[in-house]
Amino acid sequence: MKKNIIKFGLLSILMLLVCTACDGNVTRDIRHAGFALSGEFKCSVVMPSDKEDTSYSKIRYFTGSHMILDDGRIYELSLGQYFTNQQNCREASTNIRVKAILDNRIVKATDDLYYYLVGENNVTPYTQVPETDNNYDIYDLLLRDENTVKVMTADSSIGLYYLLFSDGNVYADTITKPDRNSLPIITSTQVVYNKSDYGAIIRDFNYAGDSLSTFVRTDYKTYRLRMTNADQCTKYADIRCEFQMQEDPIFEQYKDRIIVYNGSTLITDYGKMFGVAS
């Protein structure tokens, strides 16, 4: 009996060492792919309890201050320190269930109303956006379509917005107001990220201009904006930097280990958090 206990203990230690080594390899490869280890992440609702666990919730949107699950539930985040529940997440005190998001600040809920996700300028989080809000007509124009999944402001000076639709394409809409007394209207629409160029329906994207934080993700691959002439344009003032969307193989290699990536933060299923380094 004593021998069996010792054998079981040694086997458990061996399995723990093997799993730790595997996680270490993942961390090493992610760092080599241009990410910097930035801390730990603890949130049981989205973390598998073991390698066989598939009951954990999937993340649809991860904003840094909030995460929204596939079922629309909202969780608040504190990445620098734990909440009193000893985790980096806690479920928000609201019954809102999200089905679309704009600039990580405004959400469209399953009741087809718009809500503030974050508090700012004396606005309380999770309260309904009133029609008296100066930007209500723009929010409504961008979010009212049932096919809208995610919206990001690309260039506010010209009224340019990028919209991910449920058809898997990202569209560029330009919004203008004919005059100060008129409602805003969409004056042009074109596909900016076409699913046919990425081989599958686009599930998520982030737009941050000419930046590594700009990406497109499908069910199978993730593409990040890369500088293609860095050796020249960072050296000479008269050479303009050129960028191209390129597949990042680390996301396909570890698609079962990376639970979320939002353009700036990457989190693995064993609780390591990374930031974009290069």
Commentary on this structure:
It is a single chain. The protein is α+β, with helices and mostly antiparallel strands. It contains 5 helices and 19 strands. It is 19% helix and 35% strand. The strands form 4 sheets. It has a 7-stranded mixed β-sheet. The protein has a 4-stranded antiparallel β-sheet with strand order 1-19-18-17, with helices on one face. The protein has a 4-stranded antiparallel β-sheet with strand order 2-3-4-5, with no helix packed on it. The protein is globular, with a radius of gyration of 22 Å. It starts with a helix and ends with a strand. The model is unreliable at 4-21 (pLDDT under 50).
Helix content: 10-25%
Please give the radius of gyration in angstroms.
22 Å
Instruction: For the largest sheet, list the strands in their spatial order.
Output: 8-7-6-9-10-11-12
Distance between the termini: 55 Å
What's the helix count?
5
Task: Describe the largest sheet.
Answer: 7 strands, mixed
Q: N-to-C SSE series?
A: HEEEEEEEEHEEEEHEEEHEHEEE
Alpha-beta content class: alpha+beta
Strand content: 25-35%
- Low-pLDDT sequence parts: 4-21
Query: Could you report the average pLDDT, rounded to the nearest whole number?
Result: 91
Give the tally of β-strands: 19
- Overall spatial form: globular
Fold blueprint:
Layout: H1 2-32, E1 35-40, E2 59-62, E3 66-69, E4 74-77, E5 89-91, E6 98-102, E7 106-109, E8 114-116, H2 136-143, E9 148-155, E10 160-165, E11 170-176, E12 185-193, H3 195-198, E13 202-206, E14 215-218, E15 222-227, H4 230-233, E16 243-247, H5 249-253, E17 258-261, E18 265-268, E19 272-276
Parallel strand pairs: 6-9
Antiparallel strand pairs: 1-19, 2-3, 3-4, 4-5, 6-7, 7-8, 9-10, 10-11, 11-12, 13-14, 14-15, 15-16, 17-18, 18-19
